[in-house]
Design goal:
The complex is a heterodimer.
Chain A (H helix, E strand, L loop, with lengths): L3 H26 L1 H9 L7 H8 L4 H11 L7 H25 L10 H9 L7 H19 L3 H19 L3 H17 L11 H21 L5 H6 L12 H19 L6 H25 L3 H14 L3 H10 L5 H13 L3 H4 L20 H12 L2 H12 L9 H13 L3 H11 L6 H13 L2 H4 L1 H9 L12 H11 L4 H14 L2 H7 L2 H4 L7 H13 L14 H17 L3 H8 L3 H7 L1
Helix pairs in contact in A: 1-2, 1-5, 2-14, 3-4, 4-7, 5-6, 5-7, 5-12, 6-12, 6-13, 7-8, 7-9, 8-9, 8-10, 9-10, 9-12, 14-16, 15-16, 16-18, 18-19, 19-20, 20-21, 21-22, 25-26, 26-27, 30-31, 31-32
Chain B lengths: L1 H17 L16 E2 L5 E4 L7 E3 L5 E7 L4 E7 L2 E2 L3 H10 L4 E10 L2 E4 L3 E6 L6 E7 L9 E7 L5 E6 L6 E9 L2 E11 L3 E6 L2 E6 L9 E6 L5 E13 L7 E14 L4 E3 L9 E8 L5 E8 L13 E8 L4 E2 L4 E4 L1 H4 L2 E7 L5 E7 L12 E6 L4 E4 L9 E6 L5 E6 L8 E6 L10 E2 L7 H4 L3 E8 L7 H9 L4 E2 L1 E2 L4
Parallel strand pairs in B: 2-9, 16-35, 20-36
Antiparallel strand pairs in B: 1-3, 3-6, 4-5, 4-7, 7-8, 7-9, 10-11, 10-34, 11-12, 13-14, 14-15, 15-16, 17-18, 18-19, 19-20, 21-22, 22-23, 23-24, 23-25, 26-27, 27-28, 28-29, 30-31, 31-32, 32-33
C-alpha cells in the first residue's frame, strides 16, 4: 500500500526541484530564446484579433499562447509562466490518472508529459500555445471522466470532441484517445458502481467524429494540408514536417492512463518504492536526453547579440564578446556595430576574430538573418536598405505570424523617409499591442501633427545621416555606399569607421590611403590604433612615405610593436599559436593569417 | 409666429432625438463629401457588391440617401462608416442599370447636421464578369511565407482560395492566366518548391516543365492563343536592384528575355529568330482575338545592370499562322520607344480587337516599381495612342486586363500609399474612352488601412473557377511532370 505522506513528500520535492530547474533554465540559460519568441509575434489587444482567432481551429490556444508569450520579453516572467503552465499540466495529468484509475499514483509519473513539453519548448519551432492547448484538452478530459451518467457522458463526448478540436487543434486527439481508453477500462472493470457504461457504439462514433471532423473542416471551411487540419497552427511552426516529438508527448498521457490501469490497486511499501524509483529514473533519463538534444545553446549565444542590438546595449555586447569570442557571422556583425557605436571600432576591432565580411550580412534565406542584417544599415543611415531587410524579415518566419520587431523597424524607416500613410499602417498595428503601443501612439500623434522629425531626435538623426544620392545595394561593394554616406554627411564618423574597417578587412590599402586624411577632417584626437598599425605596416612595404601619410606620426609603442612582430614573424611565422598569443589583437595578425 | 417657432422647435427636437436630418435645413456644403474609397461620379456595373465607404470628417452620425430609378435606400449610421444593406443595394442597382444613382450624404458633428453636395454613381447597363482572380502577397522582395491566388466574387465579398502557401509552403505562385476569361482554361506558374507550370484545359490538370534545351530558363508570363491550342510565354532572367534613396524601393531588370509559344497538342515549344534574338529583348506576348497576330514588347540590348534606365521597350507585332505554326518574316513596330522616349510593357488587347491597353514608364518592363508608370491606350483602327488620364495617378498603374465583353478593365495601382498595390475597375465605352475608376469594394471601408498584402495580376473570369486547390496541390507535388520538347516553326 502506498503511504500517502511519503508520496506527497516525494511529489512536493520533485515539483520544487522541477520549478527551480525550469525557472533557472528559462530565466537565465535560455532567456534570450524566449525574448526572441516575443519579437516573432504581434499580439493585439483587440476584439477583432480575438474573433479572428476564434474563427479558425486551434485559435483559442493560439490566442492564449500569444497573450502569454508577449510577457516573455521580461526576464524570468516568461520562465515563471512556462513553469506554472507545466505544473498545471502535471496537476491535470495527476488528477486525470487518479480519476480514471481510482488509485493513488506514483508522484513522479504525472510529471512525464510536463517534462516532455518542457523539452519541446527549448526548440524554437514548438509554440507555447501548444502547451495551453494540451492543458485545455486534459482539463476537458478530467471534466468528462467525472460525469457519472452514461447518457450525459455520451452527449458531453460528442460535443467536446469537436469543441476541443476547434479551441485547441491537435490536442483534441489526446482528449479523444483518453476518453476512449477510459470508457474501455470502465467497460472491462468488474463491480463498477461509480459510473454507468456507455454503449460501445458511441466509442465508434467518437472515433469517427475525431477522424472526420478535421477532414470536413478542410473540405468546407478552410484550405490547408491534412497534417495542419488535424494539428492546427498552435503547435509547430514548420507545417510540412511531421512533429514526431510532439506526438510522443501527446501519446505519453494516454500511455500513462494505460500504465496506471495495469499497476495493482494495492502496492507494498517495497513495490511503491520500486515504482517511484523507476519513475524517477525514467523522468531523469527523459529530462537529460531532452536537454542533450533539444536546446540549441549555440543559437542562444547568437540570439543574445541580436537582442542586445535590438535594445542598443552596445557596451553589454562588447563586454560579452570579450568574455567569449562568438563564432557566428551575425554575432560578429553586431559586435562591430557595437564597437562603432561606442567609438571603438578603430581601436578594438581586431580584438575579435574578424573576417572579410564581418561588417554586413548578405541577404540569405536562413532563419531570421534579416533581423541582424538590418541593424548596421539602420544605424549608418542607409534607411532604404534597412527597410528592405526589415520587410524581408516579416517573410522570413517559418509561420505566417507577423514579427513585432520587424513592424517596429519598418515603421521607423517609413517615419524617417516621411512616408506617412505607410508609417501609419504599421504603427496602427503596434498601437494595439501592450508593449509597443506607447511608442507607436506617440509616433502617430507626431505624425498627425506633422512633427515626427522635429520631436523624435533619434529618427531625425537617422534622417540626417541618410544618403543624398541614389545608388544600388551591392553587398560586394559596400564601400561605395559608405562613401556616398560620407559625401552627403562628411561628419558621419560611423560611416567613416565602417569604410576604413571595410578596406582593412579587404586588405585594400589603396582605399585605406585614399581616405585616411578624413581622420583630421573628422577631428580625431589622435590617430586610432588600428589605423596606426595599418600605416606602420604600409610603411614597411614602401621605399618612402606616401603623400597621404606625411602629416601623420605614429606612436612609439606602435613602432616598437611592429618591430617585435616583424622579428617574431620572420623567425616563427608558422607558429600561429605563438604569434596569436603575442599579436592576435593586432591588425598584422589578421593581415597575415586571415 | 407661435406656430413657426413651434415648427422650428419641433424640427430641432426631431433632429436631436430622431437623428434624421431635415434635408431642407441650411448647412449645406458646396463640396462633395471626402469619402474613402472615392466613389464620386464613378461608373459601376449593375451587379457589383455594395460600395461601402467611410466619410473622412469627424462625424458622430451619418445619414445617407441613395436614390435610383424607382428604389432608394435611406439609412442612419452612428460613426463615419456607411455599410449598405446588400439585398436593397442589389435591387436598387439592378433596377437602375443604364441610369444614375444619386447619393446624398448628411454628416452630424458638434455643430449639427451638414448636407454635402450630392454625388452620382452611374450604373452601366453592361455587366462585368462575375469573378476576379488575383494574387495576394506582401510587398517584400525575395522571400515570402504567405502568398496565394484567390478568386473574388464581384457581386459580393466572398473570396475563395485557388492556391495558397499554406498548402505549398516555399512555393512562389504567379502568372495565372485564362483563355479569354474562361475559367475552364488556366495556366499558372510555380517556382522554387514544386516548380513547374500548371495547365488546366479540357478538364485535364497537368504539370509541365516548360524549359527545353533551347531555353535559358523556364517559361514565365503567359498569354493564351484564342484557339486554346497554344500559349505564348516569355522566358526571362530577372534581377532586382535596390535603391538607397527615394520612394522607389527596387527596380526589376530583365537581363535577358525571349518569347516561345507552347503547342499544347504536340507538347512543343516553338519560336522565331525574331522573337529570340541574342541582342534583343522580347517579352510580354499577347495574341490578337483572331489569333493571327502576336503583339509583344521589344528592346535593344544594353549593358546591364548599369544601363538599366536606358532599357526602353517598343510595342511590336508579328504575324502568326496557327494552322501551320508559322511566324511572319518581319516584325512591325506599332509604337517605337525612340519616338516616345519611354518604355512600353504589358500590352493587353480588347476582346473586339480595337484597342490595346499598355503600361508606359520611363524605362524597363516591370513597371510596378515605377511611380510614373501609367496606362495608355492604342487605337488599332487609327493608330492613335493616348494617356488614359481618367485612370492614372501620381503613382504606379500597371497590370491590367479586359473583361470578356470589353467594357471593363481592371488594373493594379499603388495610388493609396505608394507601397501597396490595389485593384481598380473602370468602364470602357464603345469609343475606347475610359471613365473614372473605382476601388475593389470591401465590406469594411477600413479594410485597406489594415490589409498588409498587395493585390496583383488581376484577371477577370466569367464564372467561378471550379478547380479544387487540393487537386492543384496534388498535381503540383506529383512526380509526373510533362517535359516540353523543342519544336520548330515553319
Amino acid at each position: 500500500m502506498l503511504r500517502p505522506l511519503k508520496s506527497i513528500s516525494v511529489e512536493i520535492l520533485f515539483r520544487t526541484l522541477f520549478c527551480i530547474v525550469s525557472i533557472v533554465f528559462f530565466g537565465m540559460c535560455y532567456y534570450h530564446h524566449l525574448y526572441h519568441r516575443e519579437q516573432l509575434q504581434l499580439f493585439q489587444l483587440t476584439l477583432p484579433y480575438l474573433s479572428e482567432h476564434l474563427t479558425s481551429q486551434g485559435g483559442l490556444a493560439v490566442y492564449l499562447g500569444e497573450f502569454f508569450t508577449q510577457f516573455f520579453r521580461i526576464q524570468f516572467v516568461g520562465a515563471i509562466i512556462i513553469t506554472s503552465f507545466l505544473i498545471f499540466l502535471q496537476q491535470a495529468t495527476k488528477k486525470l490518472l487518479i480519476s480514471i484509475s481510482g488509485k493513488e499514483i506514483s508522484a513522479i509519473i504525472s510529471f512525464i508529459p510536463s517534462l516532455g513539453y518542457w523539452t519541446l519548448l527549448t526548440q524554437q519551432f514548438y509554440y507555447f500555445s501548444g502547451l495551453i492547448g494540451l492543458l485545455i484538452s486534459l482539463i476537458g478530459t478530467v471534466y468528462y471522466v467525472k460525469i457519472k451518467n452514461a447518457k450525459l457522458r455520451s452527449v458531453a463526448g460528442l460535443l467536446m470532441i469537436p469543441g476541443i478540436y476547434w479551441l485547441t487543434g491537435g490536442a483534441f486527439l489526446v482528449f479523444t484517445s483518453i476518453v476512449i481508453i477510459a470508457e474501455l477500462l470502465l467497460f472491462f472493470k468488474k463491480n463498477n458502481e461509480k459510473s454507468s457504461r456507455i454503449h460501445a457504439g458511441i466509442l465508434a462514433v467518437y472515433l469517427a467524429v475525431a477522424v472526420l471532423i478535421p477532414l470536413f473542416v478542410r473540405k468546407f471551411l478552410m484550405v490547408d494540408t491534412i497534417l495542419q487540419s488535424y494539428l492546427s497552427q498552435a503547435y509547430y511552426a514548420i507545417r510540412i514536417f511531421f512533429p514526431l516529438p510532439l506526438i510522443l508527448v501527446f501519446a505519453s498521457v494516454p500511455a500513462l492512463v494505460l500504465l496506471q490501469a495495469i499497476v495493482p490497486d494495492k502496492l507494498s511499501v517495497k513495490q511503491a518504492w520500486t515504482v517511484n524509483s523507476l519513475s524517477f529514473a525514467a523522468a531523469t533519463i527523459l529530462f537529460v536526453s531532452g536537454l542533450s538534444f533539444f536546446p540549441d545553446f549555440r543559437r542562444e549565444k547568437e540570439i543574445v547579440y541580436e537582442n542586445l542590438a535590438y535594445n542598443e546595449k552596445w557596451e553589454q555586447i562588447i563586454s560579452k564578446a570579450e568574455k567569449e569570442q562568438p563564432s557566428s557571422q551575425s554575432s560578429l556583425v553586431i559586435i562591430n556595430l557595437a564597437l562603432a557605436k561606442t567609438g571603438q571600432l578603430s581601436s578594438k576591432m581586431f580584438h575579435f576574430d574578424q573576417h572579410e565580411n564581418s561588417l554586413f550580412l548578405a541577404y540569405e534565406r536562413k532563419g531570421m538573418t534579416p533581423f541582424a542584417a538590418s541593424e548596421p544599415f539602420y544605424h549608418l543611415g542607409l534607411i532604404n536598405f534597412a527597410q528592405m531587410f526589415a520587410m524581408e524579415s516579416v517573410e522570413s518566419t517559418p509561420d505566417p505570424i507577423f514579427p513585432s520587431r520587424s513592424f517596429r523597424r519598418i515603421a521607423e524607416t517609413f517615419l524617417i523617409n516621411e512616408q506617412k500613410a505607410n508609417a501609419t499602417k504599421y504603427l496602427s498595428y503596434l498601437s494595439r499591442t501592450l508593449f509597443y503601443r506607447k511608442w507607436s501612439r506617440t509616433q502617430l500623434d507626431y505624425l498627425d501633427a506633422g512633427e515626427t522629425l522635429d520631436k523624435d531626435k533619434v529618427l531625425r538623426q537617422k534622417k540626417e545621416l541618410s544618403p543624398g544620392y541614389d545608388f544600388f545595394y551591392n553587398h560586394q561593394q559596400m564601400d561605395i555606399a559608405l562613401r556616398y554616406l560620407l559625401i552627403t554627411n562628411p561628419e558621419n564618423r560611423l560611416a567613416f569607421e565602417y569604410l576604413m574597417a571595410y578596406y582593412l578587412l579587404k586588405k585594400d590599402f589603396d582605399g585605406f590611403l585614399q581616405n585616411i586624411r578624413l581622420v583630421n577632417e573628422l577631428k580625431y584626437d589622435k590617430m586610432p590604433l588600428v589605423y596606426q598599425e595599418a600605416i606602420a605596416y604600409i610603411l614597411t612595404r614602401l621605399p618612402e612615405t606616401p603623400p597621404q601619410l606625411q602629416n601623420f606620426t605614429l606612436d612609439q609603442a606602435v613602432i616598437n610593436n611592429i618591430k617585435s612582430y616583424a622579428n617574431l614573424f620572420s623567425t616563427d611565422r608558422n607558429d600561429t599559436l605563438k604569434l596569436k598569443k603575442e599579436f592576435g589583437k593586432t591588425y598584422w595578425f589578421y593581415l597575415h593569417y586571415k | 409666429m407661435v406656430l413657426s417657432r413651434f415648427a422650428i422647435l419641433l424640427s430641432a427636437l426631431l433632429l436631436t432625438f430622431c437623428g434624421h436630418p431635415d434635408k431642407d435645413l441650411p448647412g449645406t456644403s458646396l463640396y462633395y463629401p471626402d469619402i474613402f474609397p472615392d466613389y464620386v461620379d464613378v461608373t459601376v456595373p449593375a451587379d457589383i457588391a455594395p460600395l461601402n465607404f467611410r466619410v473622412s470628417d469627424n462625424c458622430n452620425a451619418l445619414y445617407i440617401v441613395v436614390s435610383g430609378k424607382r428604389y432608394r435606400i435611406e439609412k442612419r449610421y452612428s460613426g463615419c462608416k456607411v455599410i449598405l444593406p446588400a439585398e436593397k443595394w442589389h435591387r436598387l442597382l439592378e433596377d437602375s442599370a443604364g441610369d444614375t444613382l444619386k447619393i446624398e450624404v448628411f454628416v452630424k458633428n458638434k455643430s449639427g447636421w451638414l448636407r454635402y453636395k450630392p454625388f452620382n454613381i452611374i450604373v452601366a447597363a453592361e455587366p462585368i464578369d462575375e469573378y476576379l482572380v488575383y494574387r495576394n502577397l506582401m510587398p517584400g522582395f525575395q522571400n515570402w511565407n504567405q502568398m496565394g491566388i484567390y478568386q473574388r466574387s464581384l457581386s459580393d465579398y466572398r473570396v475563395t482560395t485557388l492556391l495558397d502557401s499554406r498548402l505549398m509552403p516555399g512555393t512562389c505562385m504567379n502568372c495565372h492566366s485564362f483563355n479569354r476569361n474562361d475559367p475552364e482554361s488556366l495556366v499558372l506558374h510555380l517556382r522554387e518548391n514544386y516548380g513547374g507550370t500548371i495547365i488546366f484545359n479540357n478538364n485535364q490538370l497537368e504539370k509541365l516543365n516548360t524549359r527545353t534545351d533551347k531555353m535559358f530558363a523556364n517559361a514565365a508570363f503567359p498569354y493564351w492563343h484564342p484557339s486554346g491550342k497554344f500559349i505564348a510565354f516569355s522566358v526571362n532572367r530577372i534581377n532586382q536592384i535596390f535603391h538607397a534613396k527615394g520612394p522607389t524601393r527596387a527596380t526589376a531588370v530583365d537581363l535577358r528575355s525571349d518569347i516561345f509559344i507552347y503547342d499544347m497538342e504536340k507538347n512543343e515549344m516553338i519560336t522565331s529568330p525574331l522573337l529570340s534574338a541574342e541582342d534583343n529583348f522580347e517579352t510580354f506576348p499577347c495574341f490578337s482575338p483572331d489569333g493571327n497576330i502576336l503583339y509583344f514588347c521589344s528592346a535593344d540590348h544594353k549593358k546591364l545592370p548599369g544601363e538599366y534606365d536606358q532599357m526602353k521597350y517598343s510595342l511590336c507585332s508579328i504575324s502568326f499562322d496557327f494552322t501551320n505554326r508559322s511566324f511572319g518574316t518581319k516584325t512591325d513596330t506599332l509604337i517605337s520607344s525612340a519616338e516616345t522616349g519611354k518604355s512600353i510593357s504589358i500590352p493587353r488587347i480588347s476582346p473586339n480587337g480595337k484597342f490595346i491597353m499598355f503600361t508606359m514608364s520611363d524605362f524597363g518592363c516591370f513597371p510596378s516599381f515605377n511611380p510614373e508608370a501609367d496606362l495608355w491606350i492604342l487605337n488599332l483602327e487609327n493608330n492613335e495612342y493616348y494617356n488614359v488620364d481618367t485612370v492614372n495617378s501620381n503613382y504606379t498603374e500597371s497590370y491590367h486586363s479586359w473583361s470578356s465583353n470589353g467594357h471593363w478593365v481592371v488594373f493594379s495601382s499603388r495610388r493609396i500609399d505608394g507601397l501597396y498595390m490595389n485593384i481598380y475597375f473602370a468602364f470602357v465605352d464603345e469609343d475606347g474612352l475610359i471613365r473614372k475608376p473605382f476601388l475593389l469594394p470591401q465590406r469594411n471601408p477600413d479594410f485597406y488601412d489594415k490589409f498588409l498584402f498587395s493585390f496583383n495580376i488581376p484577371e477577370f473570369v466569367t464564372k467561378k473557377v471550379g478547380i479544387d486547390p487540393y487537386e492543384i496541390e496534388k498535381v503540383a507535388k506529383s512526380t509526373k511532370t510533362i517535359q516540353a520538347q523543342t519544336g520548330s516553326s515553319h
